[in-house]
Design brief:
Rossmann fold, Elongation Factor Tu (Ef-tu), domain 3, 2 domains, six-stranded mixed β-sheet
């Protein structure tokens, strides 16, 4: 039995997600399907990237992830399957080549050109999730080798987004906002693994947010910085939405400063 995850911006109002699951079940009814999320902001490639990045390491080797956030569907953008390395072993991501895999350790990739593994040789111009990505993932879960899906592609030739990385400075880090979650918490690209042993604060525009271990250590309405479960420095409002109250957008710069 294979394990397949689904990550899309399709929402839950329409039947798109259910149809993809139906296609998977028709090819491999024994496979397990897990929904990561279907509430990615429409067309948000960065949102899809972050949610996959924050999730994939918790799955076992040989997991297959389908990611369909695809504003270029029906154009010349390439559909791919890519093998990515994790501490638990290799996994496979079936995805449009639009930058979602930026920053992942890709060990092999192929273009999905072999129509024998599609639902139809004449796929819809607007629903490759149903006609290409779902059936390809189901065949992979059934044991079809990735190299049978199409020609090999160099990882260096895949689309790479211009995503800034946090940089260390003598007094802390320079970084940026990379994602806003359901609660309005703002996740930066500053790694938190080396920050727990000293006090620090984050500067966002005119706001200074002191570090706390968790939300409940502050009064309701207080702005704070903490290390989120994803491992990055996160900016929050206890009981509120930092994204709304701090009027911040993806990509806005932040500074982390050590306190003496």
């Amino acid at each position: 039995m294979g394990l397949i995850t689904l990550l899309t911006d399709f929402g839950h109002k329409d039947s798109y997600v259910g149809v993809m699951k139906g296609v998977i079940a028709g090819i491999g009814p024994h496979n397990q399907v897990i929904d990561l999320t279907h509430d990615i902001q429409p067309q948000s490639i960065l949102g899809a990237r972050f949610n996959l990045l924050a999730s994939y390491s918790y799955f076992p080797a040989k997991t297959i992830h389908i990611v369909v956030v695809d504003p270029g569907v029906g154009t010349q953008r390439v559909a791919i399957a890519a093998q990515v390395s994790t501490p638990r072993g290799h996994q496979t991501v079936v995805v449009p080549d639009n930058g979602i895999l930026t920053g992942f350790c890709i060990t092999a990739a192929v273009a999905l050109t072999q129509t024998d593994y599609w639902l139809t040789s004449q796929p819809s111009n607007t629903f490759h999730g149903r006609d290409i990505f779902a059936p390809v993932a189901a065949h992979l879960a059934n044991g079809v080798p990735m190299e049978k899906l199409g020609p090999s592609i160099s990882a260096a030739d895949l689309v790479c987004l211009d995503i800034g990385t946090a940089t260390s400075t003598p007094i802390g880090y320079d970084g940026s906002i990379q994602y806003s979650d359901h609660f309005g918490n703002l996740i930066t690209n500053i790694p938190g693994q080396n920050l727990r042993s000293r006090p620090w604060q984050v500067i966002l525009g005119e706001h200074r947010l002191p570090y706390y271990r968790t939300y409940g250590q502050t009064e309701p309405g207080t702005a704070l910085a903490l290390i989120g479960s994803h491992g990055y420095v996160e900016l929050a409002i206890n009981g509120g939405s930092a994204a709304q109250i701090l009027a911040t957008q993806i990509g806005d710069p932040v500074k982390l400063i050590y306190e003496s």
